[in-house]
Amino acid sequence: MLSKVHCGILLGALSVSMVAQAQDYLPVLQYHHVSTSSPKSTSVTPEQFTEHMDYLKTAGFQVVDLRSALDDLRAHKPLPEKAVAISFDDAYRNIYQGGFPILKERNFPFTVFINTEPVERQSRSFLTWQQMKEMEASGGVFANHTIRHPYMLRKEKGESDEAWLSRMTEEVDTVENLLLENLGHSPKMLAYPYGESNITIRTMMKERGIMAFGQQSGVVSADSDFENLPRFPASGAYSKLSTLKTKLNAKPMPLLAEQTGGDFATDQSVSIRLTFKEGKYRLKDLACYVAGQGKASLNWVSKSEVIATANKPFGVGRGRINCTMPDNTGKHYYWYSNVWIRSAPEQGYVSEKS
């Protein structure tokens, strides 16, 4: 029989072991269609999806419930080693037909962000509430993707800022109510359509206790903005298993501060200012890439602070800078991404201050 001293030593060793196996960050995979007949840019085939899920299983990844994992990260509670979460945007029926059987067979939890307008009008291309209930029984969670999937920062012609905000409030609150009405609960999570948000929309999320996702790539940690969380796209051009492996092994960039200049780009080149936490990092190996432009220029203003600048202005649309840096083991990459919107007058975007 073990003495109290021996029990204490054993428990202490177990605690150290558990901490060593713990993870304080979470990569989240983003999918849309699981089909051979849907748009390739937002799709994986059932075969590709099977390949992804089989890799998670054989490589020892622990697929976790997204909301529970976010709560734990925010509370600085450790996640299992190699924790990862799976998510889908839009309420496509092919998720049920092509993706759900694969997830169910492997007992993987998953989250689907649903836009409810096509669900409510019973479109044959979208999920039904009954299908969602069936999926819930096998680890599915259904969250908010607005009613009509609008560009949330665009005003309709002649619309005031107040009317725009009222319309966006309806887009969010209506879906929350429909989730409660049809499924009995809401996880209080939202994915911004097209990944677009601003301080006004993010404040709306915070006031409602809703955690929200953009479309910038990266890894969630306790330091993340929980009203603008990153995910890794895993469909279309991003569906290759080789690139997915790199993202699954990514870590959050160890930043003390970041300055992006806001959500909107202008006719000037964008830049970001990154300040790194104290620590031994391979800062000389940091590389930042601008969408469609190649490498950004890096200006180290101090040993721990860098300004990354695009070579030229973005065109109209969404532009991004991705930064990566190998960790000291060389097995993982630290990852950071930021997205800007370059708007055109006819698109009706709200002002930067709205």
TrEMBL record:
GO MF = hydrolase activity, acting on carbon-nitrogen (but not peptide) bonds
Pfam families, per the entry? Polysacc_deac_1
InterPro entries linked = Glyco_hydro/deAcase_b/a-brl, NODB_dom, Polysacch_Deacetylase
Q: Does the keyword DNA-binding apply?
A: no
Q: Which GO terms describe its biological process?
A: carbohydrate metabolic process
Q: Where is the signal peptide?
A: 1-22
Transmembrane region positions?
none
Q: What subcellular compartments does it reside in? A: Secreted
Answer whether the UniProt record assigns the keyword Iron to this protein: no
Listed A to Z, the keywords are: Signal
GO annotation, cellular component aspect: extracellular region
Query: Where is this chain primarily localised?
Result: secreted
Please report the stretch or stretches of sequence annotated as the NodB homology domain: 82-284
UniProt protein name:
Polysaccharide deacetylase
The scientific name of the source species is Marinomonas profundimaris
